[in-house]
Amino acid sequence: MKSYKSDKKYLYADRKDKNHKGKFLMSMRFDISGGNLDSAGEASSTIKSKLKQLGIGYSIIRRVAIASYETEMNIVLHANRGTLSVYVAEDHIKIIAVDEGPGIPNVELAMQEGYSTATEQIREMGFGAGMGLPNMKKCSDQFEIHSDIGKGTKVMIVIFF
């Protein structure tokens, strides 16, 4: 398994978050179909709307919207299928994306701005600039990615209020 961790402490990805005390204010889960560009962006748009309803501040919503859109698009463009889950707590938002896809052969290389494994067809549609993973990391306070070749990739992002 290839992994990348940010410098900050990892938070467990399930609802029984060992570092989270108390209840989540909201949780959302979206099933994402690989290759389905017609619905691409719907999950991140819904997440943004729900956070506005909760009264979350604009700067946090912006970071969550960018991170969730990038994770959603990576599933659509590179995987067969996946899930995008969002957990809202009193002091942070956690985004977890898990896909079933080819995996990332070199995670460290994929973290570099401009590096992309996108096909020519994806690039012709205006995607695949190699900014997805770097943008996710820039928007996060905590970031972790695990990838298994032939199985898929899991991304965990935490954004604190």
Mean pLDDT figure: 87
Helical segment count: 5
The string of secondary-structure elements, in order, is EEHHEEHHHEE
Total DSSP E strands = 6
Shape: globular
Query: How many domains make up the 3D coordinates?
Result: 1
Helical percent range? 25-40%
**SSE-based structural type:** alpha+beta
Strand content: 25-35%
Task: Report on the architecture of this protein.
The chain is an alpha+beta fold and 161 residues long. The chain has a single domain, classed as Histidine kinase-like ATPase, C-terminal domain (Heat Shock Protein 90), CATH 3.30.565. The protein is 32% helix and 28% strand. The chain is built from 5 helices and 6 strands, in the order E-E-H-H-E-E-H-H-H-E-E. The protein has a 6-stranded antiparallel beta sheet with strand order 1-5-6-4-3-2, with helices on one face. Strand 3 and strand 4 form a beta hairpin. The longest helix has 21 residues.
Provide tags for this entry.
single chain, 161 residues, alpha+beta, Heat Shock Protein 90, six-stranded antiparallel sheet, 5 helices, 32% helix, 28% strand, globular
Short description:
This protein is of the alpha+beta class and 161 residues long. It has a single domain, classed as Heat Shock Protein 90.
